[in-house]
Amino acid sequence: MNFMENILRLNDVELLRKSFRLDIPQLDLNAGHIYLVEGPNGAGKSTLLQLLALLMTPTRGVVQFCGERVTQEAQRQRLRRHITLVEQNPYLFDKTVYQNLALGLRLRDVRGDLQRRRITQALGAVGLEGFESRRAKALSGGEARRVALARAVVLSPRLLLLDEPTAGLDRDVLPIFEKCLSNLPAHGTTVVIAGHDLDQSRRLGGTVLKLDRGKLLQSTSDSLPLRKESA
Amino acid sequence: MDYLFSSLGTALGMIMHLNGEVLSAVGTSLYTSVTAILFSSLFGVAAGAAIGLGSFPGRGLAMTVLNTLMALPTVVVGLVLFGLFSRQGPFGPLGLLFTPWAMIAGQIVLATPIVANYTVAAVAGADPRILPTAMTLGASRLSGTWQLLLEVRFGVMAAVVAGFGRVIAEVGVAMMLGGNIRGYTRTMTTAIALETSKGEFAFGLALGIVLMTVALVINLFLHQLQHR
Description:
The structure holds two protein chains of two kinds. By secondary structure, chain A is of the alpha/beta class. Helix content of chain A is 30%, strand content 29%. In chain A, strands 6-7-8-3-9-10-11 form a seven-stranded mixed sheet, sandwiched between helices. In chain A, strands 2-1-4-5 form a four-stranded antiparallel sheet, covered by helices on one side. In chain A, α3 runs parallel beside α5 (141-153). Chain A starts with 5 loop residues before the first strand and ends with a strand. The model of chain A is unreliable at 222-231 (pLDDT under 50). By secondary structure, chain B is mainly α. The N and C termini of chain B lie far apart (43 Å). The A-B interface holds A 53, 55, 77, 80-81, 83-87, 89-91, 93-94, 103-104, 107-108, 151, 155 and B 127, 129-130, 132-141, 143, 147, 150-151.
């Protein structure tokens, strides 16, 4: 895998939503990297993730996914198969854990033994072995977050977006979560995490993207002192 | 009182001995109502999901029209469709008037707004994260809407049951479009109206008991769904 390969490029992008304006002069996300979107509450982190997930259409500017300029809804839907977003407060369908994980795989025509193997593997990665037949609605908050992560990871997306994934998570669960995330780039997945925890970025070895009042200010590398990569 | 008790006894006897006339009316009622509700569910759930989830010009008007159609008098539906299906009407050549299919068409018109309205309520009250979650997992808007309907399945089932309750108990459409033909288009409700007017009170009572039992079963089912 080429780790310099560009996955997603935003150029002079503006998104207007009610009274909020998101302004991204330039953003390049490369394959197999971890990025942390950092900024105060209301900075537009969740909106940026929605935009990166191709769930929103920018008012202005160019969005390119794997070199393909995204312009039409049908194309957006096709490309979304390579992107997965885990919301801050993820929704689990009123089914078993297995069925929750199988949903995205079914949409990608992954069935039978391969489906079972991948689900077992994904649940193992988040420390929830043997949870397949549990009802998703009966899980604790922490377990539900891990199932949501497993449901995203099982799809082996090229771009995984996580909105405040560890906020409110028990301390003993955090290492499992971070280990799972840190393993993903080696498999070619680009991970973008929106959050406040700069230490997490350092632990995961990612690049920090600073967002303030809807404007992407800079992106910097993870290690101290923060090194400016691009404006 | 003796008259009432003896009629009740006769009515129960007819039900227990599976009286042919009673069975025929029950069969026609169930056949037309079940067929109608299958079509109404298709149209009503689709329309309800589109209106409940959509944001388009005229959505408010569509809701008002749906609410108005819910209170549509059955005889008005019967009257309009009679005009359409009668020999001089645009669908006259199809020869549908006074057949079960004319009754089914009328019942579809009656039940669809009810199913649609209940579906609008079910999808509007659904968790707003359902559709975006399905779409982030790779679903199209259409398959995401299907996932959402599965999540609110008890509300959708309540919509279907409410529609069925409306058509199984209606008399106007069945009488005007079916013609109350014995053994062919005679339903429980039209048979009750006819037989009672002929003085066959026990027969009407037997059908009334079956109709009430069907209504009771539907309501018990609806009650169960609402408490899930």
